[in-house]
## 1
Amino acid sequence: MVWGGLGIWTPTPLHAWRRWLACLFGAQIDTTAKIYPGVRIWYPPNLTMERFATLGPGVNCYAMAPIQLEAYALVSQDAHLCAGTHDIDDPHFQLRTRPIRIGRDAWVAAEAFVGPGVTIGDRAVLGARAVAMRSLDQGGVYAGNPARKLRERLAFPQNDE
């Protein structure tokens, strides 16, 4: 209720306000990280955002297990980070959670889906509307459903800490 009333709809420039609200409920977010309007965070204590990490507009961060965005990681608009699923072969349909890690300088593009237990390697790219149910190699460029490696990302200077 607090996030819906005081956070999700706020104007774009109010990153500090949204960071403060998320941290108030247990998230660990660096003061340089950005949370855009429309972001939904389920259970903030499981969210960690390092230096200059970004959750773009409308991202659904379903943090049933820890979700970590390392330095300069970018999750673009309407992407979905889902750290939980159910065991479909269990008669009790038990919940299964596994952490998600988005590596340094990695990019999860618009409307992509990242499933439980996935690590997006440093500098890796998950293309728009792609689905990652397995970890992505460092520096790889992936697209499709399921995500398939297309090529290696070109080298560029690293962001400075």
## 2
Amino acid sequence: MITQNTKCFADLCIEEFLYIHARARKIKNSKIVSDTIELANKFTGEKIKPQHKVTTLSGGQTRSLLIADALLIGAAPIILLDEIENAGIFKQEVIEIIKNSSKIIIFVTHDPVIALLTKKRLIMGNGAVKKVLCQNESETKAAKNLLELDRKMGIIRENLRAGFEITKELVNVNFA
């Protein structure tokens, strides 16, 4: 379970943290640690380096690392992801990788992009399942439109993160 509160208390570097988890899972693949860091870096604009301390990562970096760790090292067949969109993560990349994994992923979300990209949605209320909805053709089209807007917003976010000025050309460019 990866929640919004992703605090790590171990004062280890990323590489040690992942190696310990892989060893505990009896994973012998020597590339699993570097593969996990590489995957985490696909999810975040703030790159994670193996020598960084886990405790110094931002919320988005930590969430990206924990998602990559759950996908590649974790033994659980089911992963619960709580509000991944709140951490500035590249959620489209996360969703694409998850679709190609053998794990069952349950998202807790208020994000319409994530909600509409899922095959089934459980509508909750007062701690109970109120409805189960299956994705339909209209939702697939709506998701496609929202994904395009989300890509545009991601480009602007990454330009802001890099310290660039947002210009008229960037705002008006056709991203198709």
